[in-house]
Fold these 4 entries.
Entry 1:
Amino acid sequence: MQEKIIILDFGSQYTQLIARRVRELNTYCEIVPYNKFPKEKEGIKGVILSGSPFSVNDPNALHIDMTDIRGIYPVLGVCYGAQFLAHSSGGKVESAGTREYGRALLEWHDESDLLFKDIRNNSIVWMSHGDSITHIPDNFKIVASTKEVKIAGFRIEGEKTWGVQFHPEVYHSEDGKILLNNFLKNICGCAQDWTPASFIKTTVSNLQSTLGDDKVVLALSGGVDSTVAAVLLNKAIGKNLTCIFVDNGLLRKNEFDDVLRNYEHMGLNVIGIDAKEQFYTALKGVKEPEKKRKIIGKGFIDVFDCEAQKLNDIKWLAQGTIYPDVIESLSITGMVIKSHHNVGGLPEKMNLKIVEPLRLLFKDEVRKVGRELGISPELISRHPFPGPGLGVRILGDVTPEKVRILQDADHIFIQGLRANNLYDKVWQAGAILLSVQSVGVMGDERTYENAIALRAVISTDGMTADWAHLPYEFLAHTSNEIINKVKGVNRVVYDISSKPPATIEWE
């Protein structure tokens, strides 16, 4: 039985960070919308209520009935989660007048409290809230305060329920990881035995049980996710797995041949399909990003479905979907942030069932599993690459000529990162072909040609990211190389925006 912590998401920008910290403590957890508590209760050891951009006093605030949660499972409310616990129990939450954002010193009042065991007095915690809890019911006990916030931490007598006004999951909260570990270990009684090795053992067993003797076709991309998914499936079902790698005309330069060569000695059965013209035809004249994603996604499925028909008795389509794909494809408000070809837009009449062995892992967890599986460092350290490929790095409509320009520019950038020992210091990098042209001068002639944006970010899991501070000398050299060697480009810019508010990709 898989032990797990359920994180109820009220829309906080930090929800994914809570999950990251819980998993770093070798405890499996799942993020679910605030109003979608799992019907299957087996294995649930505790519940965490996330923060939220809402005030509990807003007419549109996100409220739930806690009857089947409180007193049954240990509960930890974080920021809005703590305010909701107080508010829904008859306490009072009021506007703090000014938003409190940043560091504060925490003072605890009860050294015997299980949640605050080994937390240092006056340790730094991270605050991010506009409301404060100003009154709590009689069965609530204040266990921590800051200079500005009297009720910075409380517990409810008679049940294993706590609330904290600060964010223990944020790096700036010095003892935040200790607090979360106290909740998992001392309060929830978690075994904390969820590791890459245990994930592989459980996943292989589950795949064998689910798939049996069925045959599976895998959407191989050459990236980290599909590589690890392929090796896991190969470990589980061996010869019943067929990998299909599609050249959709939106890959990096030489990617099709390079990927097929990389898998020659891995014992995988790989079929390469040239479908460039099919994708170019479908994308002709389409400029809207979401529409392009859907077309590319449908194109992948159509190709896989067609190729599966040529194979005998294929029942399943395997994909390298990972957790950020799942989280970012759906929001608690129902608004689509972005769709992925391996999550959204699947045709209703698809002839294959879906298996996604990595859908509950963050990217760095996928890499850890890959290392445990013995996959070569060269493959495991590859940067993430968007499912729709260069289709979402070409702003506006996609043409073979634009693909050629972007492939050449991107190749210079990526090879330059490798040659200067910068590739492994960056989470993700790539070039973007902008939808504008600009005036330039080459020789004695004026030009009116394309602009390329370079993007390189530092991140842990892709959920948040900061721009990489690449050396000026490197950027200057890369710009000169692109302008001099890529026909059709006369300007190069560097993207210095973080995520949020921007995203890593431009579309």
Entry 2:
Amino acid sequence: MTKDYYKTLGVEKNATKEEIKKAYKRLAKKYHPDLNKDSDAENKFKEINEAAAILADDEKRSRYDQFGTAEAGPGGFDFRNMGDFGFDFDSIFESFFGGNIFGSGRRRRGPRPGDDLRYDMEITLEQAAEGITKTIEIPHTVKCPECKGTGAEAREDIIECPECDGSGFVRRTARTPFGMFSTQSSCPRCRGQGAIIKNFCKKCEGEGKIQKISKLEVKIPAGAETGTNLRVEGAGEAGDRNANPGDLYIIIHVKEHKVFERHGDDIYIEIPIRFTQAALGDKIEVPILKGKAELKIPAGTQSHTIFKMRNKGVPHLHGSGAGDQLVKIIVEIPKKLTKKQKELLKEFGKSHKKGFFF
């Protein structure tokens, strides 16, 4: 009976090599005898290997499509040669066993560095403009001061791992229809370190690190804004034995201000003035980030006019100088007038009978 290789892999007859590869990878992982202990798993694994061997080879696939059969050639199909047809079996078996199937060399996994930490800090707009130094508390793991991070009671307590002979990985044999193939993975006993500890440090119990709350002084530069992040090297979590610690990233959040709005390094404020000040002109005091400053209002100033006070904004974080303060003038119209004020305004109105368009 002619075997339906397409049906075996669950692909269409016009399937690409990439689709065949994906189908094989999925099924090989599902039915591999070392992963699937069902009684028919081995036979099923043989079938999908045979199907992939034919359909991955253009010449054999063409012959199979025409005649319903394809010879594997002298000596049978070489499992390793599937790489010639776009199959990366090292990566496929890496996902099964965590190692290379043909025994190629692999470096020992080194100690894992510590994780980075994040700290969110809220500051005021004035603090952002001025710059400030703050003391914060960080709960994290640090290198054990007793054993200096080795995890051992003494240096001589660190010995070569007998499981992997100090290599950091172990070999295993995977049985396939095409022979026995070696795999290698991280040593479970030493976790890829290549060494184990006979007597653990009593303070950290062999971890090489302990829990601690550290106090850090952090300098927030003038000009910081929401989203500014500061990196404190080595202030994160401690790494595995003898590995470097992670870093601490401080993320700045600037609070909303009751008076000012910030737009980049410029600040914006609305100032109400009386009708007479707008009409006749005046000098007024306006709040700035550092106290108050005088602003000249020219005669005839219209409501919603914006004046720029140079360099009264937030200092530039990168570079010299500062932003500006933008002052929007709001002319207030009095809601209640005295009799005399009404008469004066009527008189004023009579002298300006012409409309805006005359």
Entry 3:
Amino acid sequence: MKYWFEDQLQSLLQSDDKDEFIRGIIKAVESLGFEYYAYGLRVSIPITNPKYEFYNNYPAAWKKVYQQEGYLEQDPTVRHGLRTIQPVVWEELMFDESKAFWEDAKSHGLSHGWAQSARLDASSIGMLTLARSGETLTSKELSSKTPYLLWLNQLVQMGFQRLLLPKLQHNYKASLTEKEIEVIKWCAEGKTSDEIGIILNTSKRTVNFHTANIIKKLNVSNKTAAAIRAVQLGFIS
């Protein structure tokens, strides 16, 4: 298993072709004893209208039902992944409030699974899910495979980040000067223009000039929105 994963590491990290990358994921998933993989990416720029990208090899019938029933909003594994990067194993208890979803999933051959999310940057989160229809995931199997599952998740997250994020974030690329970054950092702290001027040893007029430029560059309507966007784009860490 160790040597196989070393090969997978090189293969997945070096692939710049999305189809080739996905074929590598499927091969890895099957080698770990699963039938299906699913990857979802959410980019929350703008916050009120996040973008989603989904890739999986689920049965076509399940994909159709999932979309028609709006299961994305009900899926407890997705809710878990948005809250924490802690891995989760599918268990009956976690589907108590989503019984219709759970019964539909099992009827389409998705009975046992494992999932983990990862923060890709301040505005993006991705989640990898592995699933199968056959045997239950035992504690013994999890004990032996968890290091490889975690490793695979990291490879998949890194690969999709490289292949997808530039396209999804293209319209929100911006460049701020060092002085503008200083100003927006203090805006994010709730400081007024007068206060920022004192901190940076400059005039209120100059601070307002920089703030106006920041708002224009980040394509937002006010300095509060600019501070949020600056965090999302990594100008404020």
Entry 4:
Amino acid sequence: MPETGASSVEWRISERPQAYPEAVAAMEARVAEIRAGRAPELVWLLEHPPLYTAGTSADDADLVDPGRFPVYRTGRGGQYTYHGPGQRVAYVMLDLRHRGGDLRRYVHDLEDWLIRTLARFNVKGERRAGRVGIWIARDRGREDKIAAIGVRVRRWVAYHGIALNVDPDLGHFEGIVPCGVRKHGVTSLVDLGLPVTLADADVALQAAFEEVFGLETVTDA
């Protein structure tokens, strides 16, 4: 196990879909270990089976089809989000005490991480004022969301993280109003015509992460 602190981040990749309640429990346990200095920070790459999560700002009216998939209430910020196969979820457990204790800067860095990841596939991801996540400009003024961000912080250790649409079933988003935004759609790397796999996305995510956060990484696949 690498030394704890800000000098190294462990990376873990789960090959099989992870049940949401068990993943959250594992995150919370790891957050406690990081806070106590007994474990290094962690980026955990995984998929979930099809499900919806409701963040702390979720509006029940945005759950369009409540019987379609399981719905989990979660302590992360944000509204309704879909998770499922073909979407790379990155749960990021970082100790913000080593990063100036600036939550807004941390969220900005997560956005930058996603933008730099997409740039590796020649995709221009963009921020939008008043809208969480990363967006793609399409034809005729259309804008589609390609990545979601949701963060929770416990005693200055951040967890939850990001979800990048690589090749999910975009029809599964129809059961919710994603992140409360009704006037725009969702897209994915494959939907944009790019033959990107989850493994490709993982390589890009790790390289871009090191650019943004400037940390050594230790891989535990």
